[in-house]
Amino acid sequence: MATYKVTVATGDMVEAGTNNSISITLVGSYGESRQTTVPFLFQPGKEKSLSVHCGQDLGPIVLIRLHKWRLFLEDAWFCKDVRVTAPNGTLYRFPCYQWLEGVTTVEVREGSGKKLVDDKLQILKEHRHRELAARQEAYRWKNFAQGWPRCLSVDSIFELDSNIQFSCIRATNFTGFLIFQGASHFLSGFLLRRTSWNSLDEMRTIFSRTQGRDIGECL
User: Fold this and answer.
1) For residue range 99-158, what is the model confidence (pLDDT) as tens digits?
2) What would the 3-class secondary structure string for the chain be?
3) What is the pTM of this model?
4) Max CA distance (Å), the chain
5) CA angle 35–57–88, rounded 5-degree value
6) How far apart are CA 70 and CA 102, in angstroms?
7) CATH number of the domain at 2-124, out of 3.40.630.30, 2.30.30.100, 3.10.450.50, 2.60.60.20?
8) Binding site for Ca(2+): which residues?
9) Strand order of the sheet with strand 2-10?
10) What ranges do the domains of the chain cover?
């Protein structure tokens, strides 16, 4: 009997937690564990600890699978990382940093940086191929119009996976900055101006600084 200590961390952003069911499977060089449920009620910035019992030693842990089931209502979960301590004390880290939505299974490799030639196990080679195929599916391009730069092959940003979209915080900051700049230009008279500039001094009254230097120094 081999017992592995597992710690699952939830991200600290707003609504990162979930009430849905989360379970984990450990995959090692010699085999894999049974699917084990993580205790409920994941809260932002908090960690959950559990023990995974296996009939035999799994060898070096190379991969984990996170399984998510929807209970009644959809409640997305942002997993920060997972840490696994083997019976011999070896610590394995699995950085996740992504949203899990709906009923899904996500595979996360151990965090050590490795090249393609370092993948000796067939399961790691297959995982790399699946990951590449998923990225090719997510980042497809199309021609918006003749002569224009290519763009993502979606009709709306809401068709994109949550891990590709701007985060809620970034989108809010971007919108707030846009509103602030628009109001500043409106109050300074820039947005209402219909005539040409008369001098650089006049431009300085509106654009006083550009990257920390006077406009006159940039022209």
Assistant:
1) 999 899 999 999 988 888 888 889 889 988 898 888 888 788 888 888 888 888 888 777
2) CEEEEEEEEECCCCCCCECCEEEEEEEECCCECCCEECCCCECCCCEEEEEEEECCCCCCEEEEEEEEECECECCCEEEEEEEEECCCCCEEEEEEEEEECCCEEEEEECCCCCCHHHCCCHHHHHHHHHHHHHHHHHCCEEECCCCCCEEECCCCHHHCCCCCCCCHHHHHHHHHHHHHHHHHHHHHCCCCCCCCCCCHHHHHCCCCCECCECHHHHC
3) 0.70
4) 84
5) 110
6) 6
7) 2.60.60.20
8) 17, 75-76
9) 47-54, 2-10, 77-85, 91-100
10) 2-124, 168-218
- Binding-site residue positions: 17, 75-76
